[in-house]
Design a protein that fits this description.
- With 172 residues, this protein is mainly α.
- It is 63% helix and 0% strand.
- The protein is built from six helices and no strands.
- The chain starts with 11 loop residues before the first helix and ends in a 19-residue tail after the last helix.
- The chain is elongated.
- This is DUF3043 domain-containing protein.
- It comes from Actinobacteria bacterium BACL2 MAG-120802-bin41.
- Keywords: Membrane, Transmembrane, Transmembrane helix.
- Pfam families: DUF3043.
């Protein structure tokens, strides 16, 4: 059996009157909406700042925990081929616009070699990450950690989120 709502259904006349009353006071609603939007904007900015700082409470589930923090710091403390892949692709794009066959061929060779070096570097990075995590955090599952580190290493350092917490070359 369904539960009753505790009040009678309003008559059509009453419902129409309440709609008219809501339309007559839009100024109060507009001011309330503006205030609410401003508060939401400030809250979103605070949450984004906390996320970019690496605050544990503001991180999404895929970035939470001491293991993921270690991986981020481990990746951020070194240089990788992957982080230069995007600038290399932009260079390749401009090189292919030059109507000289040798330069276009060199551009394609550069692109594929950067891709291969990035994948090989990612493979070895993944293995090192898993080895370090298994020694520093015994009992932790290693599933997905190598890919997490490799994907972070392919991002341009200044554009990584959360922002890097360590300097290049710093020991972890």
């Amino acid at each position: 059996m369904s539960e009753k709502k505790g009040r009678p259904t309003p008559k059509r006349k009453e419902a129409e009157q309440s709609r008219v009353i809501n339309r007559l006071a839009p100024a109060a609603n507009k001011e309330a909406k503006k205030l609410q939007k401003a508060q939401a904007r400030v809250l979103r900015a605070q949450q984004r700042d906390a996320y970019m700082r690496g605050d544990e409470n503001a991180l999404p589930p895929r970035d939470k925990g001491p293991v993921r923090r270690f991986i981020r710091n481990y990746v951020d403390s070194r240089r990788s081929v992957g982080e230069f892949f995007l600038p290399i692709i932009v260079l390749v794009l401009f090189m292919t616009l030059i109507p000289v066959m040798y330069i276009q061929f060199a551009a394609i060779a550069l692109m594929y070699s950067a891709l291969i070096f990035s994948v090989v570097d990612g493979y070895f990075l993944s293995r090192r990450i898993k080895r370090e995590v298994s020694t520093r955090f015994p009992g932790e599952t290693l599933k997905g950690l190598g890919m997490y580190g490799w994907l972070r290493s392919t991002q341009i350092r200044r554009l990584r989120a959360p922002l890097p917490q360590v300097k290049r070359g710093e020991k972890i």
